[in-house]
Structures are given as C-alpha cells and as structure tokens.
C-alpha cells in the first residue's frame, strides 16, 4: 500500500502540470484580459462589464478600448501585469514560481494569492467538512434502515421526502430556509450573514463555539439536501443488492442473527460502492456546490474568490485557486482509495498495479 500511495503521489505532479498547461492556453485565448480590465478602469468604463463578457472590438489591429491612449502608458500597463513578455516565457515563469509554491500576487486585490486563499479557506472548509460529515452520518444509517425495511410505510414516506429534497436545487432550498427560519416572513431563529457574529471576539470560548455553529446551520443544511438524497438511495440499493447474494443465504443458514449478517458480512461489501463515491462527493461539496450558498449567505469563501477572479481576469488568483482545487481533489481521491482497504482489507491496490 505504501508503494501504491507513493506512485499516486508522484503522478500528482504531471497531472497538475498538464492541467496548468491546458488552462494557461485557454485563459490566454480568452478576451478581456487584465490589461484590458486596467485600461477600462482608467477610462471609467468598468472592466468586468466592458470587456470581460465577449470579444474585444478591434479597428485596424488596434483594440477599441486602447484607441487614443498613450502607447507608453499601454506599455507600462503591460509591463505591470507581465504581458510585455512572450507567452512561452510567462508560462515558464509561472511553472518556476509554482515549483517553489509561490502563487504570485493578485492583480487587483493588493495581496498575495497565498494570503487570499488562506483568508477564504476556513469558510469553504467549514461548509464542506460539516456538510459532508452530516451527510454521511445521516444517510448511511438511514439507507441501511430503508434496505432492512424495504417496501414498508417507513421506506415509502422517507423515499418521497428524499426525492422531493433531491429535486429541489440547493440554492432554492437555501432561500426557503431564509424565508422560514432566517427572519424572512416566519421565524427569526438563525443568522443569514457571515460565518460569525460581529462581536465574536468579545464572546467566551463556549460562546464562540455556539456562535460559529449557529451561523452554519442554514448554509450547511442547504448544502446537505442534494447529497443527502443521493447517498441515502445509493446506500439502500447497495445493501439490497448484497442481501440477495448467496453468501448472505449461507450466513443465515448457519444460524447467524440478522444483525450479524447485516454488519458482519453485508456491510463491508455494500459500503465499497458508497466509499467509491466519497471523493467525488467531497470535491463537489468543497468546490462545486458552495458558490451560490456563499453568495446567498454572504460567506466569503473560495467559491466567490474564484468566481470574482475569473470575471475580472485576475490570472494569479485564477491559477492559484485552480492549483489548490486540483491538488485537493487528487489527494481526496487518493484518500478514497485508501478507505477501500479500511472497509475491506482484502483489497490490495499494490497487487493490482504489479
């Protein structure tokens, strides 16, 4: 297993390199880069709306946004953002700095990319960690119970509730939670802005903990709703598939109790399919499903940071966020593979790779 883990870790390097190369080419080809954004700001146009949404008009090979500006000013702006160098040289400098874990400095935020990510990461980690933990702690026992009581009234009404939850988009459910519990039209039980209160520093240790979790109730609930339905039905179907196999019939014939059959034999095999979906679920919750939730609940996390950077063409932040997302995704997938061996020690990835 150590050899397999070492090979997977080594493969992360060329994978990151290929992803950075592809995205560098795509980003360089996209219109409305940081130079055009800076020029639009100087002209009072508004960068994102003026040049970020489509092709830049040109007349005689000259950008419409740059017409009438001093060429020396344009050269200074290009030099400031590093666009006075050829694309190949910019790519080499990018890879060289990333090899030293130097992600550069934001074009428009006045801080390094590392500082920005460090500031936003706690919000994204809080949402992703607690949403994933609650999803698995509730969905797996519920899925097992639905499999054991398949066809019963409990299975029918719980399935109906799950399907309704799955059909409702997370952002729409978030708005519903705000209306009902966030001071909309009914109850005012939970805060709907930020991760902590304004007087957080004046609270006691217990008060800080309560305040932190109190702010997480609504956004985490909104994130859980979609993954909760999928994982519950996946767990149920996995157990139903395993219960019908011959080894279960044999175990029952030997006089084992239903609990021994379920958790001693069925659980290990059924959970393999559930564990297989863990890496993708983590990636989706951490980096895919949090943007709208962050916007709705005024949470300043990596989702909003990446979106704003893409709109404003803040390339250092775009590449830095991409690097972090990809690295975390690859590491999470490796952890998911290692979890296979915890669920079923008979799995040996090293033997398969040999």
TrEMBL record:
Give a single Pfam family match. Answer: BPD_transp_1
Q: Which domain of life is it from?
A: Bacteria
Membrane-related topology note: Multi-pass membrane protein
Keywords associated with the record: Cell inner membrane, Cell membrane, Membrane, Transmembrane, Transmembrane helix, Transport
Q: Which GO terms describe its cellular component?
A: plasma membrane
Q: Which InterPro entries match?
A: MetI-like, MetI-like_sf
Key word Cell cycle present: no
Q: Which GO terms describe its biological process?
A: microcin transport; transmembrane transport
Where is this chain's protein located in or outside the cell?
A: Cell inner membrane; Cell membrane
ABC transmembrane type-1 domain ranges (all copies): 121-336
Q: Does the keyword rRNA processing apply?
A: no
User: What are the transmembrane regions?
Assistant: 123-144, 156-181, 212-235, 270-297, 317-343
Role according to the record: Probably part of a binding-protein-dependent transport system. Probably responsible for the translocation of the substrate across the membrane.
The entry sums up its family as follows: Belongs to the binding-protein-dependent transport system permease family.
What name does the UniProt record give this protein? Inner membrane ABC transporter permease protein YejB
